[in-house]
Design brief:
- By secondary structure, the chain is an alpha+beta fold.
- It folds into two domains: 121 residues, Immunoglobulin-like (Sandwich), CATH 2.60.40; 172 residues, no CATH class.
- It contains nine helices and nine strands.
- Helix 5 packs parallel to helix 7.
- The N terminus is likely disordered.
Length: 326
């Protein structure tokens, strides 16, 4: 049963894509609510009519009454499959409170998340909408620190468990790690490295293009897989893990940078998101590492090459998709 479980885990990685996300930035001026909504049109599943029609049927804005008029002001291609819709919602009275409901998850891939930021009465709010939390309400009352902490802690955990490339990277390390001591050094170096670049990118100190970052992440996975197959180490594993952790940190930062977070809560959002990433990462390691060790002790010597081949093929697919087709 455990062997079957391992194969199922690898198969899941091989067949899955990165988590689906869209985002919106909302500006409120008097009776007008202007929404800048960005999504990947390739992810739309059987949309009825135009992209605007699909959005209008699955993205609702209220104050709390419905708008008297909804207008598509601008449609922009952002490069690749990304498009942005600038939508104007006009209400009868000045907007002092806002309710947003998103059911985009019904026409997007499973697990879809909608990240949004709303500027209302001089305060910038943020929310994460998905199938479990499809609605958010915004008032002039600022979000509490505790609410911000739990929201981004959850986002960090979800980002790991839906970030299949990061899980594949960790799995490639786990199948070639023999002792707890080695595992601790590897995970620690990866954590320190991605925490550094996550902070630098989130505070806009160092920013890399998302396409470059995602392509390099795929290459880091391929490198680990090749090292495993050749039984070769150019340097100690925790050194190379630190270098690749710097790249993965830029990948983690893309989520926070999409949300246009207020500076007043940026540090807390970064801390709680990173804590969530670590909780997810440690949970994955604690679940998988004992299974790997048990399979190795049982004499299944083909575990490492089998998993490494799967990860290597997956990494090549991701690299081609991100570098040339994204």
């Amino acid at each position: 049963m455990r062997i079957v479980a391992m194969f199922l885990a690898v198969a899941t990685l091989a067949s899955a894509h990165d988590v689906s996300r869209s985002d919106s930035k909302v500006e409120i001026q008097g009776r007008e609510v202007r929404v800048f909504l960005t999504l990947n049109y390739n992810e739309l599943q059987n949309p009825a009519g135009s992209i605007f029609d699909a959005v209008r049927q699955h993205y609702f804005v209220g104050s709390p009454a419905a708008p008297i008029r909804t207008t598509l002001e601008k449609y922009s291609a952002l490069g690749g499959p990304l498009v942005q819709l600038q939508i104007l919602y006009t209400f009868e009275k000045d907007v002092t409170a806002l309710t947003v409901r998103s059911t985009l998850y019904e026409i997007m891939p499973p697990g879809h998340q909608h990240l949004m930021s709303v500027r209302l009465n001089g305060t910038l709010h943020e929310a994460i909408l998905d199938s479990r939390t499809p609605e958010a309400k915004f008032t002039g009352v600022q979000t509490t620190n505790l609410q911000t902490f739990w929201r981004f802690l959850r986002l960090g955990v979800e980002h790991i468990f839906t970030g299949y490339d990061h899980l594949a990277f960790l799995l490639g390390l786990l199948v070639a790690t023999a002792t707890i001591g080695s595992l601790v050094r590897i995970i620690t170096s990866f954590t320190i490295a991605h925490s550094i670049t996550l902070a630098l990118a989130t505070f806009n100190v160092v920013i890399l293009p998302a396409r470059l970052t995602e392509s390099l992440i795929a290459l880091s996975i391929l490198y680990v897989a090749v090292e495993n197959l050749l039984d070769f180490r150019a340097m100690k594993r925790y050194y190379i893990t630190f270098l690749f952790g710097l790249v993965h940190g830029f990948g983690f930062s893309n989520v926070l940078r999409e949300m246009d977070l207020p500076k007043s809560s940026l540090a807390l959002s970064l801390f709680s998101f990173n804590a969530g990433v670590e909780i997810g990462q440690v949970t994955f390691v604690l679940l998988i590492f004992p299974l790997v060790q048990d399979l190795v002790r049982s004499g299944w010597k083909r575990l490492q090459p089998a998993v490494s081949v799967c990860i290597g093929v997956l990494a090549v697919y991701w690299f081609v998709q991100r570098a040339f087709l994204g």
